Amino acid sequence: MTKKSDKAISFNKNFKARTTRQHALSFATCVHCGTCNDSCHYYLATEDPEMTPAAKMDKIRQVFKAQNDWLGKIAPKWVGAKEIETDKELEELKDIVFGSCTGCRRCTFNCPFGVDTAILVGLARSCLVDEGIAPEGILHVMDDQWKIGNQMGISQEEYLETLEWIEEELQEEFDDQKYKIPIDKTGADFVYVINPREIKYDPRPLQAAFKIFYAAGLDWTMGSAGWDNTNFGLFSGKPDLGGHMGNLAYDHAKKLQVKRMVISECGHGLRSTKWEAPNWGKANPLPFEIISLLELMVDLINNCKIILDPSRNPYPVTYHDPCNLSRSCGITEEPRFCLKRACLDFREMIPNRADSYCCTGGGGAMSMSEYTQRRLEVAKIKAEQIKPTGAAIVATSCHNCVDGLSELIKEYDLRYDYGDGKTKLLAVPNVCEVVAEAIVIPKELRRVVRVPGEEIKGKKILVIDDEPDFVIFLQTLLEDNGFEVITATDGSSGLAKAKEEKPDLITLDITMPGKSGVQVYRDIRLNPDIANIPIFIVTGVIDFRQLMYQKSVQAPEGFLKKPIDNDVFLMTVNKILEKSVKTKKAKA
Ligand code: SF4
Ligand code: SF4
């Protein structure tokens, strides 16, 4: 018998201790009938028998059999029973449970016995994580949730400053200088709990939700703590982290004495916060109700608290059902109710609801850059599902899905023809953004790009991008808005100009010949002279996650996917520069 490695011994021990009756039921019930094979996007896309749910689970099941099955103990080879023995086997298992399964549970819904593959994956993930054998991104995010309380390591200062910035934007949009985003309001009807991505990288869904709350005249508040609804306890299989994140949110909501907690559009956020974390954190019963923003919007539309004009969304819209919402929370009709009232042409994707395919970004996959290529390969199943809808917009209700769908739309070049030869990649908003676009509010003003404030006017911006046309475009846009612009069309000269000119902001492309954007980014961050210059990634590839989820360098201050929306680009530039000026003043 091979001598087991220390990590293998520890893994096997934890596996045995953590196997519950729920796991045993799924381990023991699978009869390898193959009914679920066609449920799995990994198998459908690759046609590799090793990618069928049963084959993948057999790699976990062999440990269960060795530890619990009497036949596995007396004739292990006969029944394929075997504990993990080497570090190499642990790495192979990592590849399966992190890199080949998003825990989407589509196979469970198609299994005649209801075998729950995702909980078996969770069990294996938790034991691997304890040995430090997991994608770096997962370990990094877990660390941030434990230590800082949110998955993107956002400081309290950054969180509050971003809300303040959004407040100023909305004051202009509403033409209402008295508009305030309430923070820590005691006794409000509800506290709004969000995905940190909305603060760090894409405030549009937050602005949309706030616009809806404003139009409906709701009594609500943001919390200064416990505001992250995401939970890597679910993706890592670690209930202790799951309970910690849940309790951060519950404790603050209790302190504020709110009646309800409303979860922004995040599939696993709703599942974790509403259904799993109360048990993980031993927080039941909670003294308030938890609902999704989707449920709140249905109520507001039904009761005429908001008025929608669907003609403002004239292009065809389809809906992608996030796995956690449809299969684990039963939320399928609410988004359709909202979209059918907020746009003129709603089209179903086939299959849909609990039978929809995963966007391929679930299960924490978006933070595992090592599996990007495989993920995009299997994403062809989802691309083939989207294409026949002929939609211009793929609305969804989850931030992971927004990222997963955006990447595959780019990879498979899914476009809508707007006529006159103009085609654009399909847009992927959350449902609240479509609703907010249609909302009619008194004295409504069209969203205006904020004119740069006096304190940031004339700031020097270095544009680094290898596409000369795009450089000229950004230069013109920025100069027209009062900034000074210097440019570079490759990584090496960009780095040299950063050192020489010390600009106030750098916009940086990622894919460039020679020195790539990732190398330039690292070189800047590791050079104390220029490390603090804010960097705004503007790229067509999604490798920025390699930067976001790395511990060794500070995350970029902003990112935007090409093709860019001019308004969003300028808004982000303004936001980054204003925050940088404030930080410098505070330090002075
Ligand atoms: S998980 Fe269910 S459907 Fe799939 S092979 Fe096993 S018994 Fe059959
Ligand atoms: S949970 Fe989803 S990704 Fe995992 S094996 Fe089942 S169908 Fe495939």
Describe the structure.
This protein is α/β, with parallel strands linked by helices. It contains 28 helices and 14 strands. The chain has a 5-stranded parallel β-sheet with strand order 11-10-12-13-14. Strand 10 (460-464), helix 24 (468-480) and strand 11 (484-488) form a beta-alpha-beta unit. Helix 1 (6-18) crosses helix 9, helix 13 (204-216) packs across helix 23 (431-438) and helix 25 (491-501) runs parallel beside helix 26 (517-525). The longest helix has 22 residues, at 566-587. The chain is globular. The relative contact order is 0.08. Residues 39-40, 42, 53, 56, 101-107, 117-118 line the site of one iron/sulfur cluster.
- Bound heterogens, unique: iron/sulfur cluster
Largest sheet: 5 strands, parallel
Whole-Å distance between the termini? Answer: 66 Å
β-strand percent reads 5-15%
Question: What is the alpha-carbon Rg in Å?
Answer: 25 Å
Q: How many helical stretches?
A: 28
* Largest beta sheet: strand ordering: 11-10-12-13-14
Could you report the average pLDDT, rounded to the nearest whole number?
Answer: 92
Oligomerization category of the chains in this entry: single chain
Count all strands and give the number.
Answer: 14
Low-confidence stretches: 444-449
Structural class: alpha/beta
Helical percentage: 40-55%
Inertia-based shape: globular
